[in-house]
């Protein structure tokens, strides 16, 4: 077996964790990096990055919180500089589809001396099972803007399988892999699929972006997260991504996971179950 050492930035997150599992299952040596690792990797503390990259051959990079936020270009420029200095050979970077700022970051990495593969993906299905849409689904009411927008939601196991291949295989080199799921669906259809899979009556309520941000404020959501969500709803979920690609099938030799299969699998784990409160006095 090749004896490359793998670094996973954001290795405890939704995509990074899945990449780490796959590399370790194949017996590869993996350094999982985030603020909680030793050595620690913090996107706001570039002085610590060299120690994390030192001795690493290939890296999976999930930027946090999003390549669309101000400061991401400077961070990727600096990361590439450190990676070139420490001799990184290949970098697989996660990017967001339809985000002009993210595409600028991709170019910084692609134009470097490091063999870069961009895994450019659409909205995660796991936003409903591991992220900010989980609580509304559990509560039985998903209020969100952009009712009309069709989104080709993507499964993170598919993303991780592609990222793994991109890390391991020399034939995947210096390119952008644009990935989507197979179905174009809107939020109402998402909620219908989850209702069907769970047997629960979950409602979708269309709201304006202003109403949505006010709801987030009422729930004391941090302002920088509200900024990001507002940006995504305004600038990305405007229909620009209402098309699918078949790159997952081409790369993996099997179809991408559909939302209905995802919903059935997640429903079976119980993640979407609602705890029934104990009746007082029992
Ligand atoms: N959600 C979507 O639908 C979607 C779609 C397309 C692209 N993306 C992209 O996905 C990326 C996020 O990836 P993900 O979902 O796999 O990650 P995630 O689940 O959000 O996890 C974040 C990871 O980054 C680490 N982290 C958090 N703050 C950090 C900081 N200041 N410095 C260094 N590490 C930090 C976390 O670990 P610690 O807390 O231990 O530091 C964790 O490992 C973003 O770039 C986003 O643009 C998301």
UniProtKB/TrEMBL annotation:
Domain (NmrA-like) ranges: 118-229
Annotated source species: Lentiprolixibacter aurantiacus
UniProt-listed PANTHER family: PRESTALK A DIFFERENTIATION PROTEIN A (PTHR43162:SF1), PTHR43162
Gene3D superfamilies with a match to the protein in the record: NAD(P)-binding Rossmann-like Domain (3.40.50.720), UDP-galactose 4-epimerase, domain 1 (3.90.25.10)
Pfam families for the chain: NmrA (PF05368)
Protein name (database record): NmrA family transcriptional regulator
Domain of life: Bacteria
């Amino acid at each position: 077996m090749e004896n490359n050492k793998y670094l996973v930035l954001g290795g405890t997150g939704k995509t990074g964790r899945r990449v780490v599992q796959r590399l370790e299952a194949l017996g590869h040596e993996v350094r999982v990096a985030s603020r909680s690792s030793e050595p620690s990797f913090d996107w706001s503390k570039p002085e610590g990055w060299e120690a994390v990259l030192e001795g690493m051959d290939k890296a999976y990079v999930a930027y946090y919180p999003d390549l669309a936020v101000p400061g991401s270009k400077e961070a990727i420029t600096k990361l590439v500089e450190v990676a070139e200095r420490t001799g990184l050979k290949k970098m697989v970077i996660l990017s967001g589809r339809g985000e002009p700022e993210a595409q600028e970051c991709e170019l910084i990495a692609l134009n470097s001396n490091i063999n870069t593969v961009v895994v450019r993906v659409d909205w995660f299905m796991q936003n409903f099972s591991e992220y900010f849409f989980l609580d509304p689904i559990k509560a039985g009411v998903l209020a969100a803007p952009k009712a009309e927008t069709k989104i080709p939601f993507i499964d993170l196991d598919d993303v991780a399988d592609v990222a793994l291949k991109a890390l391991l295989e020399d034939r995947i080199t210096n390119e952008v892999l644009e990935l989507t799921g197979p179905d174009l669906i809107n939020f109402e259809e998402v909620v219908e699929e989850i209702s069907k899979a769970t047997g629960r009556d979950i409602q979708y309520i269309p709201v304006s972006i202003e109403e949505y941000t006010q709801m987030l404020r009422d729930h004391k959501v941090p302002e920088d997260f509200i900024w990001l969500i507002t940006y995504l709803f305004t600038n990305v979920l405007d229909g620009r991504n209402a098309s699918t690609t078949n790159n997952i099938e081409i790369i993996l030799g099997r179809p991408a996971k559909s939302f209905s299969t995802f919903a059935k699998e997640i429903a079976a784990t119980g993640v979407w179950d609602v705890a029934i409160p104990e009746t007082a006095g029992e």
